[in-house]
């Protein structure tokens, strides 16, 4: 079976982390984001993965090629020289996806984290045997998204309503699809959107069905949602795979890499991920945060609801709060306060940032 991952562009919403690394390789819960997806695809029986990329493709190619043999899959890269939209990305790989027996294939957006029920989606698709299956999830603020309206008895999609001013439902497109090969005939080589053009056509034709996700889901393409997604994912592990979480801490939902070093008197959690080679010195407090690999946090610093990049040095008695995102290789001197700061890579911070700001 084949799958296409829509990796997309520059990852601007996750800057400054994506200034030094392509977004799919940013570590989420101590694993590159795209690895979560590929491993779930492999578990569902996928043996061919195609990645539609347009930015820093070579670095991504090298990293994934190193893993492909371990996954025992074939990996292909489709490089867009100019943006073609979500459907345009499919048009570039039609020959790879097309199947004479109309076997279905999977498509997913690269920013999604969930429990990836691909096998169940495939079974549902094979049951209704139409052109497409779209995963939907309930949103607390559906007016921010496009709402998918479908028959609750048959799950047949009726229509899509973009950012509705009035309530029409709360099921939104979750960015996971199972598509029959024959639907590729709908796609041209011009820039085209699956969500705004192709799926509404399929809904009008009565050939698109909704699969309802009943577990956690998050688009982690921006910092606040990345942290929310981390919390949801750690809670999912706590309930289903507790062995993947740290067993030596009395606070729930903490993931600490085996190579990380933790000092005395630290308070860690809830909802904290500590990456490989990280050093946490005595008396540090971490809460609702991700600390990426090879960073050093000196004594008695306090980090809340923030993301710290790779190879950073955080001084003594530093306070970092309010969705700060610290780029790679940043030095924060002792006794500073950072509030909602976005710090670009390779900077040395010697003064406090009291109001949310971008430090260039």
Describe the fold and architecture.
By secondary structure, the protein is of the alpha/beta class. The protein folds into two domains: 2-219, Spore Coat Polysaccharide Biosynthesis Protein SpsA, Chain A, CATH 3.90.550.10; 223-359, UDP N-Acetylglucosamine Acyltransferase, domain 1. The chain is 22% helix and 29% strand. It contains seven helices and 29 strands. It has helices spanning 33-43, 57-71, 85-92, 94-97, 118-128, 194-205, 223-240, and strands spanning 2-8, 48-53, 74-79, 105-109, 112-114, 132-138, 146-150, 157-162, 171-179, 208-212, 217-219, 254-256, 261-262, 267-268, 272-274, 279-280, 285-287, 289-291, 296-297, 302-304, 307-308, 313-314, 319-321, 325-326, 331-332, 337-339, 342-343, 348-349, 358-359. The strands form six sheets. A seven-stranded mixed beta sheet has the order 3-2-1-4-9-6-10, with helices on both faces. Strands 12-15-18-21-24-27-29 form a seven-stranded parallel beta sheet, with helices on one face. A six-stranded parallel beta sheet has the order 13-16-19-22-25-28, with no helix packed on it. Strand 1 (2-8), helix 1 (33-43) and strand 2 form a beta-alpha-beta unit. The longest helix is centred in the middle third of the chain and has 18 residues, at 223-240. It starts with a strand and ends with a strand. Its EC number is 2.7.7.13. It comes from Onchocerca volvulus. Pathway: Nucleotide-sugar biosynthesis; GDP-alpha-D-mannose biosynthesis; GDP-alpha-D-mannose from alpha-D-mannose 1-phosphate (GTP route): step 1/1.
């Amino acid at each position: 079976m084949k799958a296409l991952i829509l990796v997309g562009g520059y990852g601007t919403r996750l800057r400054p982390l994506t200034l030094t690394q392509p977004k799919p390789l940013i570590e989420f819960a101590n694993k590159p984001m795209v690895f979560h997806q590929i491993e779930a695809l492999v578990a569902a029986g996928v043996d061919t993965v195609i990645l539609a990329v347009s930015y820093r493709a070579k670095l991504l190619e090298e990293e994934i090629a190193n893993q492909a043999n371990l996954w025992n899959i074939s990996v292909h890269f489709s490089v867009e020289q100019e943006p073609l939209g979500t459907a345009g990305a499919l048009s570039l790989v039609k020959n790879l996806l097309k199947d004479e027996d109309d076997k279905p294939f999977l498509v997913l957006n690269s920013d999604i984290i969930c429990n990836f029920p691909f096998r169940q989606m495939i079974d549902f698709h094979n049951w209704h045997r139409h052109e497409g299956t779209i995963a939907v999830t309930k949103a607390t603020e559906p007016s921010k998204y496009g709402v998918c309206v479908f028959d609750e008895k048959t799950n047949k999609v009726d229509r899509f309503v973009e950012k509705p001013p009035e309530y029409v439902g709360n099921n939104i497109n979750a960015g996971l699809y199972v598509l029959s090969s024959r639907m590729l005939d709908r796609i041209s080589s011009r820039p085209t959107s699956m969500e705004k053009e192709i799926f509404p056509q399929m809904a009008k034709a009565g050939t698109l069905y909704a699969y309802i996700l009943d577990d956690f889901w998050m688009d982690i393409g921006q910092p606040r949602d990345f942290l929310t997604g981390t919390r949801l994912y750690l809670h999912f592990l706590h309930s289903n795979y507790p062995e993947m979480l740290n067993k030596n801490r009395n606070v729930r939902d903490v993931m600490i890499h085996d190579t990380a070093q933790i000092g005395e008197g630290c308070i860690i959690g809830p909802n904290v991920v500590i990456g490989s080679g990280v050093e946490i010195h005595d008396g540090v407090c971490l809460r609702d945060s991700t600390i990426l690999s090879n960073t050093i946090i000196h004594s008695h610093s306090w980090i809340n609801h923030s993301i710290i990049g790779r190879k950073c040095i955080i001084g003594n008695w530093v306070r970092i709060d309010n969705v700060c995102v610290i780029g790679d290789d940043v030095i924060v001197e002792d006794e500073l306060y950072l509030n909602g700061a976005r710090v670009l890579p390779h900077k040395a911070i010697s003064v406090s940032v009291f109001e949310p700001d971008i430090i260039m």
